[in-house]
């Protein structure tokens, strides 16, 4: 007897969740207009002269962290992100850490000394950081699998990182759901 | 009378020049431009590492961690 009511309530709850996600994406995009496009089109220089365009990572949830070896909160945040790398293995997600050090060797030395598992993408202070006019350092940006800006965390605090982790987890779950549904459609 | 007016005018002109000179010396430093400002050499004390060590043991002795503007603290144990 109550089944239609339960179904309706479930649908409303799902709609509310979806609206909430969309609102979050819209809010981040409105607050930082143009960031998603600028980040996607910028080419980063990686190890051994390799290049990475974040726009090419569409299909994965991407966490972009801006850091510098001279920035103490950034170093703390990088250590936390370093712990995430193992947890995210096998998930459709990538963490890209972008050094804005003036001198590439300082960034290299820091990553080596700390044993952090990130390839060094060195961009300097006049690259993407200036293009975005970064409002703070550290600054961490989350892009969903479609390359849309979902969240910007500016303070590097434990609470901010916890929220960031939650957002990334939700986005990965969404993406895994999409991929599973696509697989089922293909096989069925 | 004329002398007083001229003196006043010169004083105002001088103040304006100082004011304009002062304002042009101000610049906004963006977060990604602070590499040189963040360098330990920019502190007034030359021996920055020793200063940090001194501060650490003063905080431990006095139980005053955070008193110099650092968040958190209390035990000074790390």
Report the sheet with the most strands of chain B, covering strand number, pairing sense and barrel closure: none
* Proportion in helices of chain A: 40-55%
| CATH fold label of chain A | Glutaredoxin
Spatial strand order of the main sheet of chain A:
5-4-3-6-7
Helix-strand topology string of chain B: HH
**Unreliable residue runs of chain B:** none
Give the averaged pLDDT of chain B, no decimals: 78
Could you tell me how far the N terminus lies from the C terminus of chain B, measured between alpha carbons in angstroms?
A: 72 Å
Average pLDDT of chain A works out at 87
> In total, how many beta strands of chain B?
0
Work out the radius of gyration of chain A.
Answer: 18 Å
By helix and strand content of chain A, what is the structural category? Answer: alpha/beta
Quick overview:
Chain A is α/β, with parallel strands linked by helices. Helices cover 53% and strands 17% of the residues of chain A.
Written overview of the protein:
The complex is a heterodimer of chains A (188) and B (78). Chain A is of the alpha/beta class and 188 residues long. Chain A has a single domain (23-187), classed as Glutaredoxin, CATH 3.40.30. Helices cover 53% and strands 17% of the residues of chain A. Chain A has six helices and seven strands, in the order ααβββαβαβαββα. Chain A has helices spanning 3-31, 35-41, 72-88, 104-114, 128-132, 158-187; strands spanning 43-45, 51-53, 61-67, 93-99, 121-122, 139-143, 149-153. Chain A has a five-stranded mixed beta sheet with strand order 5-4-3-6-7. The longest helix of chain A is centred in the C-terminal third of the chain and has 30 residues, at 158-187. Chain A is globular. In chain A, 31% of the residues are buried. Residues 16-20 of chain A have low confidence and may be disordered. By secondary structure, chain B is mainly alpha-helical. Chain B has two helices and no strands. Chain B has helices spanning 2-24, 48-62. The longest helix of chain B is centred in the N-terminal third of the chain and has 23 residues, at 2-24. The N and C termini of chain B lie far apart (72 Å). The model of chain B has no long low-confidence stretch (mean pLDDT 78). Chain A binds chain B through residues 66, 68, 70-71, 100-102, 125, 129-130, 133-137, 139, and chain B through 30-35, 38-39.
């Amino acid at each position: 007897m109550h089944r239609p009511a339960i179904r309706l309530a479930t649908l409303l709850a799902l709609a509310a969740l979806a609206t909430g996600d969309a609102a979050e994406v819209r809010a981040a995009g409105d607050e930082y207009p143009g960031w998603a496009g600028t980040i996607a089109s910028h080419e980063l220089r990686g190890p051994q002269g390799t290049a990475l365009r974040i726009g090419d990572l569409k299909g994965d949830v991407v966490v972009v962290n801006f850091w510098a070896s001279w920035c103490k909160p950034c170093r703390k945040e990088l250590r936390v992100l370093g712990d995430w790398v193992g947890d995210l293995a096998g998930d459709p997600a990538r963490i890209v850490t972008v050094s804005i050090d003036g001198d590439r060797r300082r960034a290299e030395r820091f990553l080596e000394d700390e044993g952090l598992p990130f390839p060094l993408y060195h961009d300097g202070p006049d690259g993407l950081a200036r293009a975005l006019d970064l409002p703070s350092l550290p600054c961490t940006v989350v892009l969903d699998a479609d390359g849309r800006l979902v969240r910007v965390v500016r303070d590097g605090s434990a609470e901010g990182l916890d929220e960031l982790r939650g957002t990334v987890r939700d986005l990965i779950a969404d993406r895994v759901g999409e991929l599973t549904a696509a697989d089922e459609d293909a096989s069925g | 009378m004329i002398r007083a007016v001229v003196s006043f005018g010169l004083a105002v002109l001088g103040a304006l020049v100082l004011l304009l000179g002062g304002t042009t010396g101000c610049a906004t430093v963006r977060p990604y431009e602070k590499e040189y400002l963040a360098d330990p050499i920019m502190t007034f004390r030359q021996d920055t590492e020793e200063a940090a060590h001194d501060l650490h043991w003063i905080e431990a002795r006095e139980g005053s961690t955070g008193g110099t503007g650092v968040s958190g603290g209390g035990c000074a144990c790390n």
